[in-house]
Amino acid sequence: MAFDASVRRLDFPILERRVHDAPLVYLDSAASAQKPARVLAAVDTFYRQHYANVHRGAHTLSDEATSHYEAARARTARFLNAPSERSLVFVRNATEGINLVAHAWGRTALREGDEIVLTVAEHHANLVPWHLLAAERGVVIRGVPLGRDQRVDMDALADAIGPRTRLVTTFHVSNVLGLLNPIADIAALAHAAGALLLVDGAQAAPHLPVDVQALGADMYVFSGHKVGAPSGIGALWVREDLLRTWPPFLGGGEMIRSVELERSTYADIPMRFEAGTPAIAEAVGLHAALDYLDEVGLAAIWDHDRALARYAIERLRAVEGVRVYGPEGDDRGGIVPFNVEGVHPHDVASALDTFGVAVRAGHHCAQPLMRALGVQSTVRASFWLHTTRDDVDRLVEAVAEARAFFGAVA
Ligand code: PMP
């Protein structure tokens, strides 16, 4: 069946809402995605019929909950085309996954003077954990700029990687520019220098097929809430041979083999990294969300995103005083940052809200990138599989109205 966003819209109950007496146009999927009805149903059924704590199999419900939770793990591994689910760790979100790597791997493997290479377009979630580590361990951070075409400068990246580089870490799709990073090429550069590659897939997993093996990633992280799952669950996949060597990140129940008063021994992977009661129903919701995305077809979603981004960029550019940021081309997904001359991005977003159009305004947790673009903040419209051309038209009309309104009062 051919992809049709107006049909997909019907899968999302919240999109029937009205906001300020207008039909909701939700263009903030990059911040968090809305939930398809089948995810809501899966979570509801799980709570009504199977819920209990996991891995404490003294009774039927606990066994059932454990089976559901572990099935979600296997499903998530398959979604990433990971070789096995043994090294798929459930975390709260992408941020926690990156912090886990910084603690479990970074604090044990890195020495003073070791280097981490990343780009100017990273989300703060892929900057601050490394800053904390740098302060503690004397690790050096090397930042790679964007080239003139607003893509990662691959020559500068190759130059930044040297004999002390232990980790290259970067986004798969930029949360500001919508840009697809050439991860397989970056993996080749990292591996030639003996460094590992961590990929921040927060903006890729909802939008395109991910194959960690084809990408050559050593670690890959994403958040459930951006793929249509509940908030509070995310996934970190790590190459199994690596993860096996890492010490725990958080300590507590579930992650131990045996505990004495003065010492503990730890469980095998992946449980070693899942201290405490995990996000059980959220994992079930994640399973349903990944089933949904695979059924719709991620390749079709990526084509749709890119076509919509082209359309939105063209229409927004036609509005006087609107400036759109980021590259154009086939590697540009459905995230469109822009500014309206003379109007603060927060005012633009508030004005759009009065027309029922939900967008984000701010620095998008990417302050270094904002500086590189020469702005403090932008408006950001972000699309997903339920976004239609009509939604983009409503956005463009609302932007034009907002500009006229603010122009009129200036
Ligand atoms: N990386 C990127 C590229 C993101 O867009 C985000 C979320 N905006 C994150 C990491 C962090 O995700 P979370 O807040 O779910 O941990």
Describe the structure.
By secondary structure, this protein is of the alpha/beta class. The chain folds into two domains: 137 residues, Aspartate Aminotransferase, domain 1; 245 residues, Aspartate Aminotransferase, domain 2 (3-Layer(aba) Sandwich), CATH 3.40.640.10. Helices cover 40% and strands 17% of the residues. The strands form five sheets. A seven-stranded mixed sheet has the order 4-10-9-8-7-5-6, sandwiched between helices. Strands 13-14-17-16 form a four-stranded antiparallel sheet, with helices on one face. 4'-deoxy-4'-aminopyridoxal-5'-phosphate binds next to helix 4. 4'-deoxy-4'-aminopyridoxal-5'-phosphate (PMP) binds next to helix 4.
Q: First CA to last CA: what distance? A: 50 Å
From the helix content, strand content and strand pairing, which structural class follows? Answer: alpha/beta
Strand content: 15-25%
- Overall spatial form: globular
Overall residue-averaged pLDDT value? 96
Unreliable spans are: none
Total E-strand runs: 17
- Supply Rg: 22 Å
CATH hierarchy, class of the largest domain: Alpha Beta
Task: Summarize this structure as a short list of keywords or feature phrases.
410 residues, alpha/beta, Aspartate Aminotransferase, domain 1, Aspartate Aminotransferase, domain 2, 2 domains, seven-stranded mixed beta sheet, four-stranded antiparallel beta sheet, 14 helices, 17 strands, 17% strand, globular, binds 4'-deoxy-4'-aminopyridoxal-5'-phosphate
